[in-house]
Amino acid sequence: MELHEPELREVPVTAVLAALADDVRLQIVRALAPGGEHACGSFEFGVSKATRSHHLKVLREAGLTRTRIAGTTRYVRLRRDELDRLYPGLLDAVLTAPARPQGSASPATPGGMT
C-alpha cells in the first residue's frame, strides 16, 4: 500500500498553515518534534481512532509528516529538515508558541461564537 506524500515544495504554504492550525494536529506535531518515528496508534489525545487517523492524514497530505508502513503498523515522523529548509523558522515559531487552554475561543471566533 502506498500513501500519498507530496513533495513539500508542491504544497501551498496555506495548506501547511491550515494543517498546523488545528489543536490536535498541533499536539501531534509537538509530540513528533523531538525526532524519530512514532507508531500512529501511540498518540492519545482524547480523540477516536478514526479522528486520529484523519488528523494524521491531513498532516501527511500537507507535507508535514512521512508515514512508513510495517505490517499492520504505521509509523509517522516529522519532515523537520525539509520544513526548516523550505520555511525557515516556521516550526520553531509554532512549537514555541504557548498552547491555548482547552475550551478557550480561537482568535478567529471571539467568545467561541461561529
Write the layout of secondary structure elements.
Blueprint: H1 13-20, H2 23-32, E1 38-39, H3 49-61, E2 65-70, E3 73-78, H4 80-86, H5 90-96
Antiparallel strand pairs: 1-3, 2-3
Domain HTH arsR-type: 5-98
InterPro entries: ArsR-like_HTH, HTH_ArsR_DNA-bd_dom, HTH_MetalResp_TranReg, WH-like_DNA-bd_sf, WH_DNA-bd_sf
Pfam family, one: HTH_20
Please state how the strands of the largest beta sheet are arranged side by side.
1-3-2
Which sequence of SSEs, written as H and E, runs from N to C?
Answer: HHEHEEHH
N- to C-terminal distance: 39 Å
The unreliable regions are 109-114
Number of strands: 3
- Rg over CA atoms: 14 Å
Structural class: alpha+beta
* Total DSSP helices: 5
Mean pLDDT: 87
Give the overall silhouette: globular
Strand content: 5-15%
Give the oligomeric state: single chain
The gist of it:
The protein is an alpha+beta fold and 114 residues long. Helices cover 39% and strands 12% of the residues.
